[in-house]
Amino acid sequence: MAASVTSLSRARWQVPKSVVGSSANSSSRFWATNRLVSFPKVSHPPKFQTSVINKESVGPDVKHLKVGDRVAMEPGATCKRCDACKSGRYELCPDIIFAATPPYDGTLGRYYRLPADLAFPLPDNVSLEDGAMAIGIHSVSNLGGFRANQSIAVFGCGPVGLLCMAVAKALGANRVIAVDINAARLEFAKGYAATHTYLPPSMEEGETRPAYSRRNAEKMKKDLGIEDRGSKAIDLVIDASGAEVSIQTGLFIAKSGGTMVQVGMGNPNVTIDVGQLTTKELNYKGSFRYGPGDYPLAIALVAQGKIDLKPLVTHRYTFDQAIVAFQATRSGKSEDGKGVIKVVISGPDFPADAA
Q1: What global pTM score does this model have?
Q2: Minimal CA–CA distance to 5: which of 90, 83, 76, 65?
Q3: Which one of 20, 137, 153, 301 has the fewest beta carbons within 10 angstroms of its own beta carbon?
């Protein structure tokens, strides 16, 4: 989301005025169900998530920003005192104030208060829309430890999965494999960041999910020449779907000693093959929110032209059309039938094309 700071309620806190915002899937789920995984149900859905702002005034203790700066907002203020914060994993702070996470509203409004150190200036060649989508870094680079010439498989070709692919490509990936049950999304992924795509087969009658996932993994390995070790192995698996069979298949195709990062959130109770975790000594990690260095690296990759975010924005809405935007995100298509990848909502004082 984009906005502009109009005042400071405390020396190092900013109050931005919204300009552009991206409708996150988690916000859409809160809006539709009033809950997400272990977070409690709320009486009203939170408003929004990822943000970018335009600064209009600064307080005396804000040194790295000046009036008129366009900045990306990392929407999670932490205590800076707990063990998680001090150890460099502030995204796990128990007292975090995270936008669009109960009991806190999001940034879909004219004003939002944020610590100034969570506002990152955007270079001149990075648009407000680009700044509103600085995600994917945490899962691939930070948690996944992805390096040049490694290979990655991403399950789920939605906006988060596509951004994970783009990050891997920007970091010098050898192979970027996109996996989805939607052929149209696979086609988009191939033209965007993937080097290879894979469309899983249908489940057979009476087949259990674990049995299907094992069969699916074997087919995927055969079709794409994936091996358990060496240069043809998959170093990093990202599940951005949350689907049980995707999680199961991912564990089967990850190389020995490899890493799998869980990004997608679906049914919290899934069956996995613990034998794969133990015998291959896999590193299975959860990914939640953002961490140190994620925003600066994301902005740098976009500014250097290594990631192009513009093709991901398929729909733009005005502030008054926010409900329609959330409905489109939830259904996966707009009223005209066009498929949704990423939705952007402009702030209350700006037109839909203000970015």
Answers
A1: 0.85
A2: 65
A3: 301
